[in-house]
Amino acid sequence: MRAKLWMRFAPFLSKRYISTCRTSPLPPSSSSSVIQPWLFIGLGNPGEKYQSTRHNVGFDMIDAFAESQGISLTTHHFKALFGEGVVDGVPVLLAKPQTYINLSGESAGALAAYYKLPLHRVIVAYDDTDLPCGVLRLQPKGGYGRHNGLSG
């Protein structure tokens, strides 16, 4: 199931690099029979100044995925534009933190905690100036460079 969900999300990861629900969120569930959601977080900076820049590729990826799946990102939840839906039977939560990128952990951490998600159910998309444009790198933890706050 995990690979199937990634296959639906992956085209939007690279497509945006190359070409340059509900009104209230679901409460966390304690039922073990419920499929735990994936939380996809796209990093960027709010405001027109940063629109369509490489720095906001995380926002662009979330927007493209949300549009392709018919998920609305109109709810404000934990300092983020937020939407939720189901993809191939798997619940997904989409978020674009509306803090500046260096403070996006305030939003991302609060969302993961609220939904009681382990870190392996949280995917963060962001630009990496150490990679050439159009290259995608998937890694299980944060890395080197400018976003080394992703060390989970």
Please tell me about this protein's structure.
This protein has 152 residues and is α/β, with parallel strands linked by helices. It has one domain: 3-Layer(aba) Sandwich (Rossmann fold), CATH 3.40.50. It has helices spanning 2-18, 57-69, 104-114; strands spanning 38-42, 75-77, 80-87, 90-97, 122-125. Strands 2-3-4-1-5 form a 5-stranded mixed β-sheet, with helices on both faces. Strand 3 and strand 4 form a beta hairpin. The longest helix has 17 residues, at 2-18. It is globular, with a radius of gyration of 15 Å. Mean pLDDT is 77; it is low at 13-24. One of its GO terms (molecular function) is peptidyl-tRNA hydrolase activity. InterPro entries: Pept_tRNA_hydro, Pept_tRNA_hydro_CS, Pept_tRNA_hydro_sf. This is Peptidyl-tRNA hydrolase, mitochondrial. It comes from Triticum urartu.
What are the SSEs and their pairings?
Blueprint: H1 2-18, E1 38-42, H2 57-69, E2 75-77, E3 80-87, E4 90-97, H3 104-114, E5 122-125
Parallel strand pairs: 1-4, 1-5
Antiparallel strand pairs: 2-3, 3-4
Characteristic key phrases:
152 residues; alpha/beta; Rossmann fold; 5-stranded mixed sheet; 3 helices
Give a short overview.
This protein is α/β, with parallel strands linked by helices and 152 residues long. 27% of the residues lie in helices and 18% in strands.
